[in-house]
């Protein structure tokens, strides 16, 4: 295993953790020997890619990563902006662009329709993987074993419609793989629905794009939203299969 691979394992583990991790915890999570994990951490710390937590024992991601993240973020936005704008005009609803952020998904860009919802989502806002269509769309790009790993632990119910049973979620993710479309019908916020798809974007990043609307408009806008998402470069939406999923989602 190369030094770069070991460093990547460490950084991924820290990114997915909700708290600082000790050397022993990182060794356990990555499968590295404790001595190897410690050597990699020392090198990463020298470059400020990781830092010791000021609040408790353990390591967290460091400011040295910003120089990589900022450039990548700007390329991601530039590569997708025009496509998001076209989609927003077609559906006349808010359109969000999102990517993985550890065990969550974060909105990195948005085209807001002037006549539609305001304040439901915003750039920089994080959502759970299980309680959002952008999260489930991204999970559908991963193998089941990884999906179950990311869904470990108690899952929060944001509304009565939130699915918190892992087996049900895995089955739903499998359906998303078949159709290319994920649905959120008031699973995160009452009165709000969304339809999303995920794919490898023009920068090589795994990304999700969603159309967000008032839930009472889901039936009316379903075909338009799905058809517009299907036209995104790189998207693999099975429009015919998604029509059947519409009924399963309750969009009648």
UniProtKB/TrEMBL annotation:
It holds the Pfam family HTH_IclR. One of its GO terms (biological process) is negative regulation of DNA-templated transcription. PROSITE patterns: HTH_ICLR, ICLR_ED. The keyword DNA damage does not apply. Keywords: DNA-binding, Transcription, Transcription regulation. InterPro entries: ArsR-like_HTH, GAF-like_dom_sf, HTH_MetabolicPath_Reg, Tscrpt_reg_IclR_C, Tscrpt_reg_IclR_N, WH-like_DNA-bd_sf, WH_DNA-bd_sf. CDD domains: HTH_ARSR. GO terms for molecular function: DNA binding; DNA-binding transcription factor activity. Residues 1-63 form the HTH iclR-type domain. Transmembrane segments: none annotated. Residues 64-250 form the IclR-ED domain. It comes from the Bacteria. This is IclR family transcriptional regulator. It comes from Nocardioides bruguierae.
